[in-house]
Amino acid sequence: MKIFLSSLRSGKKSVFKTVFSLTIVFVCAVLFVSQCYLALVRRSVPASAPESMTGEFSVSLQTQSTLPKDSVWVCVNGEETALFVDGRVDVTLSRASVIEVMSNCDLPFDVKTTASESTHLIASSDTIRCTKGINYICRCYRLPY
């Protein structure tokens, strides 16, 4: 009787090992194919994209409300770049960048973004509500030619 039980157990173990090995191979193949798809087909551009893929481009920020003088700055990649003048700022960029608005104003206001031709903006919407403090506006880069 022991002979039949031990062979039955070893048979189950070999079937389990085979199924487990095939599952691991299948998962690895699926991961490899999906990474190839993401790398070759979708062609995303990281924030640190090489300069050769980008050229100069501009992003305009506008607000309808009147802002107190010297109270709202536009920050590009964490550095203060320009002040809002008459509710408008044009920022010229040469590489992929993150744009933020730093406000010392207590009143909330809306900022609308528009980009130059061949520029891609990644933002939650075209109009962003800003409050006191640092407000993320968008990430932008120039599309490949």
Fraction of residues in helix? 25-40%
- Over the alpha carbons, how many angstroms does the gyration radius reach? 27 Å
Number of helices: 1
- Give the helix/strand class: alpha+beta
Number of strands: 9
Give the low-confidence spans. Answer: none
How much of the sequence lies in strands comes to 35-45%
Index terms:
145 residues; alpha+beta; five-stranded antiparallel sheet; four-stranded antiparallel sheet; 1 helix; 9 strands; 28% helix
SSE map:
Blueprint: H1 2-42, E1 57-62, E2 72-76, E3 79-83, E4 88-93, E5 97-103, E6 109-115, E7 119-122, E8 127-130, E9 133-142
Antiparallel strand pairs: 1-4, 1-6, 2-3, 2-5, 5-9, 6-8, 7-9
Structure description:
- With 145 residues, the protein is α+β, with helices and mostly antiparallel strands.
- 28% of the residues lie in helices and 37% in strands.
- It has one helix spanning 2-42; strands spanning 57-62, 72-76, 79-83, 88-93, 97-103, 109-115, 119-122, 127-130, 133-142.
- Strands 3-2-5-9-7 form a 5-stranded antiparallel sheet, with no helix packed on it.
Can you summarize this structure?
The protein has 1 helix and 9 strands. By secondary structure, it is an alpha+beta fold. The longest helix has 41 residues, at 2-42.
